[in-house]
Each structure stands twice: as structure tokens, then as C-alpha cells.
Amino acid sequence: MCLCAQGGVLTFFEIIKAILMGIVEGITEWLPISSTGHMILLEQIIKFNASEEFMSMFRVVIQLGAIMAVVVLFWGKLWPFGMKQGRVISKPSVWNLWFKVVAATIPVLIISPLDDWMEAHFYNYITVAAMLILYGALFFVVENRRAAPHVSRLEQITYRDAIIIGLWQCLAIIPGTSRSGATIVGGLLLGLSRACVAEFTFYLAIPVMAGASLLKVVKFVVGGSVMTGTEVAVLAVGCVVAFGMSLAAIRFLMDYVKRHDFKFFGAYRIVLGIIVLAVAAATAIF
Predict the structure, then answer these.
(1) What is the model's pTM?
(2) What are the angstrom distances between the C-alpha of 148 and each of 188, 191, 192, 194, 195?
(3) How many domains does the chain have?
(4) What pLDDT score was predicted for residue 41?
(5) DSSP 8-state code for residue 286
(6) What's the helix, strand, coil split of the chain in %, to 5?
């Protein structure tokens, strides 16, 4: 009975940790402040009682909850079929949008084999802090020099724009960069409005994050790893919480960019990056 009670307590604490990770993932995945970076920092504070193989998968697969929030909120714009006079019709504008999303995803597919190498060499708080500060400064530079946008609707995005934004998205392979942050910077430089580039960034996440999650699961299974009951619960809870928080974060960002620029997020990144470096320096000294 003591062992069962102890196991129940351990599982409870693991679920609490999963809830915290889901909250962080759901909020930071869509705001340009780096979800992976925040999760790395959170993992310095809370440690899961799980294998490193599971944690490597968990950090990516938890994003499925965030993806589902995009699908739910933008279903009408993403589903390429509709009904008219009792017949199923195809929506050319939606298909065109998806073709541009695919075009923007190609660069990420090309560099995806580097994911494991980057995780092994740069998955640490120093890299996260440096990227937080760098892209925070970029937001200020881009916003200060930015002219009036000439692309305010998704259908105005060209294939050239989509591919260039996709190239910017590749930079998110470095922890702390932020996938949304990189694509937003790229889109702003191309002359997209803040609302337009934010929405396009949401759509780009669907194939990229779904593909990355599938690849992680395959590697986990092929590698011979098996999830414990607690790990299954942790993954499920993390995804559900990430879904709920993502619904709120996406609505917030779409409303925010209608009236504000991205300088606030730039300042947040810089301040957080400095704090992380200061704590790291203090820890090394003392």
C-alpha cells in the first residue's frame, strides 16, 4: 500500500509538471518569444521523472495540442471544401493558400535532418538566452525601419513571399529563436501587415509541427522505447492543456496586432535573455 501511495503521489506531481509545460507551450508557441526556449528554461526548474528519450519526444509532440487550436479557430479558412445548393464544392482560394503553405514548408523539410544534431549541441540555456536577445533586438530594428505594408490579405501573398518566409522559418532550428518570431520578422521585412503575417505563421505551423511530431514518435518507437502509464498521462495532459492555452493565446495575438507593434515582445525577449545570462553567471560564480 505504501508503494502504491508513493506511486500515486509521484504520478500526481508528474501531471502537475505536465500542466505547467502545457501552459508554457500553449502560450509561447504562438507568441514570438520561443516556446522551445521557455520549455528548456522551465526544465531547469522542474525535472520530469522520465527517460530522456521520452522528454525529447514530449517537447515536440506536445505541440499537437497547439496545432489543434489553429485548426479549430480557423477551420472555415483551412477546409478546402464547402456546400452549395446541396452539392460539395471546392474552394480554389483555400487550395491556393495550402499550396503556398506547402511551398513555405519545403525549406524546413530540407534542413530537418539537422534537428537531432542541433538538439544535441545547442539545447541549452546559453543558446536560448543569446537567441532571445538577438531576435528581440531584430523586432525593434524591423519595426523602426518598416514602411507601410503592401500585403494585408493572405491571398496577396506570392509564392516568392511564401518561400522566403519558409527560409526564415528554418532559423527556428536554433533553440530560443522562435518559429513564429522568425517567420514574423521575415514577413514584416517583405511588407506583410502584422495581422497577415501572424495568421500565415499559424497556418505554417500545421504541416511543420505535425511532421516533426510524427517523426519524433517514429524515432521513439523504432528506437525500442516504450511509454509507461505515467508518461502516457503526462503526454495527454500536456497536449490538452496546450490546446486550451493556445486558443487563448491565438485570440490574444490576433487582437493585439490590430492595435500594436511587436516591440513589446522584443523587449520581453531581451529582458528575459539578460536575466537568464545573469542567473547563469551567478550560478557559475557561486
Answers:
(1) 0.89
(2) 10, 7, 9, 11, 13
(3) 1
(4) 80
(5) -
(6) 80, 5, 20
